[in-house]
UniProtKB/TrEMBL annotation:
SUPFAM superfamilies, sorted: Acyl-CoA N-acyltransferases (Nat)
Protein name stated in the entry: GNAT family N-acetyltransferase
Lineage of producing organism: Bacteria, Bacillati, Actinomycetota, Actinomycetes, Micromonosporales
PANTHER family found in the cross-reference section: ACETYLTRANSFERASE (PTHR43441:SF10), RIBOSOMAL-PROTEIN-SERINE ACETYLTRANSFERASE (PTHR43441)
InterPro entries: Acyl_CoA_acyltransferase (IPR016181), GNAT_dom (IPR000182), Ribosomal_N-acetyltransferase (IPR051908)
Domain N-acetyltransferase: 11-176, 200-366
UniProt source species: Paractinoplanes lichenicola
Length: 377
């Protein structure tokens, strides 16, 4: 079997060799690889690697797919693997996958390899490539976006989990007619990973925030102002934390933790919901733990977030809502520069089948620049 060598930027895709077995075993036995490749044996030994090279690689090519070693073009060191299978000839499509050993991560290896393989495959008979990632694998999602793959949707229960049950997978696709250029994002990363004014710090919500987030969302008044006003289950809280970065990468929401700079402790949350990019309107919402209320933290957080939104995204209108009897939340918005715009009758679902009114506030970029911060009082 002769395998065409594919050259990419800083990587070379070549055939697997028998002497790759040790590195292949180390790569597949890595905890991250085990998490996101649940079909692989655990532990993954050198014997498994030898069988993979002798049998799996050969059978994949025989079935119309391909499995390549990702190698350093200078040293020929094995860095990872990439390939495609599940080929549907009638549709000219296949599913692509990749892995990178822990010794080669954070060097752009996966993105370079994916670009090279995709360009090759889509110019040699295939017209559509699918790439599936777990919700809690934002690194792989960044690779997909960087290689010109468009997020297309979510495939429910697409993969059996290692511990039982089934897991949803996010679907990215690239067509032969796509340029392959990195896709622009509606919500970019925060500069330096955070926003701060020296008093409060905003950072992305993540998997390590489950306990704090459960405490925050379990506050009775936070539940009462949630939509719908129902306490989230522990599973739902964990899901919010695990999937937060995936939502950010998709551009539909950015969930942030409000921290007290003086103590480093989480005090509340603030979220940006970009559900209407066609009209360039987004919404913010926030909540605070009782011990940190009355300190001006949500006002500072709203201003920090608004400054970033108007400077780094195409959002033109930032809206927020508060219940008519929630004077504290309305004062936060007014101090942050928002203007009361409308009274919306029965806009939100309330408890026990009732409906609640909503007072809507709006902030434009020119409002924020003209008025500046209003943190006094």
């Amino acid at each position: 079997m002769t395998i065409a060598q594919i050259n990419g930027t800083g990587v070379r895709l070549r055939a697997f060799r028998a002497d790759d077995a040790d590195a292949l075993a180390a790569g597949f036995d890595d905890p991250l690889s085990q998490r996101f490749l649940p079909q692989m044996p655990k532990p993954f030994t050198v014997t498994h690697a030898e069988r993979y090279i002798a049998e799996r690689v050969v059978s994949t090519f025989a079935e119309g797919g391909a499995l390549y070693a990702i190698a350093d073009p200078e040293t020929d060191e094995l860095l990872g693997g990439i390939g495609f299978d599940k080929v549907v000839p009638a549709r000219r499509q296949a599913e692509v996958g990749y892995w990178v050993g822990p010794w080669a991560r954070r060097r752009g290896v996966a993105t370079a390899a994916l670009r090279a393989l995709s360009t090759h495959a889509l110019s040699h008979g295939l017209e559509r490539l699918e790439l599936l990632t777990h919700w809690d694998n934002p690194v792989s999602q960044r690779v997909a976006l960087g290689a010109g793959y468009l997020r297309e949707g979510v495939r429910r229960g697409a993969e059996p989990g290692r511990a039982g049950g089934r897991e949803d997978l996010i679907v990215f696709t690239r067509l032969a007619t796509d340029s392959g250029d990195p896709l622009p994002r509606l919500l970019p990363d925060l500069p330096g990973g955070e926003l701060t004014d020296g008093v409060v710090r905003l950072r992305p919500l993540g998997p390590g925030d489950t306990s704090f987030f459960a405490e925050l969302l379990g506050q009775p008044d936070v539940i009462a102002t949630s939509v719908p006003p129902v306490a989230p289950t522990p599973q739902r809280v964990q899901e919010r934390c695990l999937r937060a970065e995936a939502h950010w990468l998709n551009g539909n929401r950015a969930d942030l933790v409000i921290e007290d700079v003086a103590t480093g402790l989480p005090t509340g949350d603030i979220g940006l919901y970009y559900d209407d990019p066609h009209t360039q309107q987004a919404m913010i919402g926030y909540s605070m733990l009782p011990a940190y209320r009355g300190k001006g933290f949500p006002t500072r957080a709203a201003q920090l977030l608004a400054l970033w939104v108007f400077a780094e995204t195409d959002v033109a209108r930032l809206v927020a809502g508060a219940m008519p009897d929630n004077a504290g939340s309305q004062r936060v918005l007014e101090k942050a520069g928002f203007h009361k715009e409308a009274f919306l009758r029965s806009r939100l679902p309330g408890p026990d089948g009732t409906r609640s009114d909503d007072v809507q506030f709006v902030l434009l970029a020119e409002d924020l620049l003209a008025e500046g911060p209003r943190l006094d009082g």
